[in-house]
Amino acid sequence: MPRGRAARTEPARIERSGANEVVAQRTRHDHDATVPPDVTAAIREAIVRGEFAPNQRLVESDLAEQFGAGRGGVRTALVELAHEGLVERIQNRGARVRAVTVAEAIEISEVRMVVEGLCAAKAAEAVTDAEIAELRTLGEAMRTAVASGNVLEYSELNQTLHRRVIEISGQGTAADVLERLRAKNVRHQFRLALVPGRPSVSVTEHLAIVDGICARDPTRAEHAARGHLVSVIEALRATGPGSV
């Protein structure tokens, strides 16, 4: 009889165990649904937008509350962003936004010169009629922003043009590389936009890139893109040492 009772109750224990596992899976699923799909991307974008200043401490509990994520997810994100060079982790002191020196910004721009030149050439080969019209409209908007002295709008349009050229090129590997470099260098780019006279120089260079792509001339487009980054490097050198 004891063995019989054990035999009858064992399936019940298995059934309850299975039910508990289902509940646990549902609980984990419900919890995951409330966590942003990519905390790393959210923090990275906040740094790019300037929500966090260079050398500012990044407190895990504050970030968890701001982005609606668990502290474990935030901690993992900070480790990944440290590998990207956006965040600096200091032993026993946590993490902070990493400042980028002018020398490093120049190195980044030198890499961008090669990769964005490639993307401009690829875009010239792949661009459609609709995309040509889009790039022309974007170029005119940039010209108008500079003429009206709207530096912030011009800076945003600048970023949009670079992003669209990369997207049109279809070069996914280059897009990944440039996204990481953009995040590290965006503060210097905005700083350059504030230099008197720089937007007028920059918009002419960007319009040359647009012209090369819209003419479907890869050599011309690549030359214009590389020429623009050479100009950026010269402008960075003129700003002198420091970090942002």
Automatic annotation (TrEMBL):
Species of the source: Nocardia aurantia
GO molecular function: DNA binding; DNA-binding transcription factor activity
Region (Disordered): 1-34
SMART domains named in the record: FCD, HTH_GNTR
Descriptive protein name: HTH-type transcriptional repressor RspR
Gene3D superfamilies referenced in this protein's UniProt entry, alphabetically: GntR ligand-binding domain-like (1.20.120.530), Winged helix-like DNA-binding domain superfamily/Winged helix DNA-binding domain (1.10.10.10)
PANTHER family: GLUCONATE OPERON TRANSCRIPTIONAL REPRESSOR (PTHR43537:SF24), TRANSCRIPTIONAL REGULATOR, GNTR FAMILY (PTHR43537)
Domain called HTH gntR-type: residue spans: 33-100
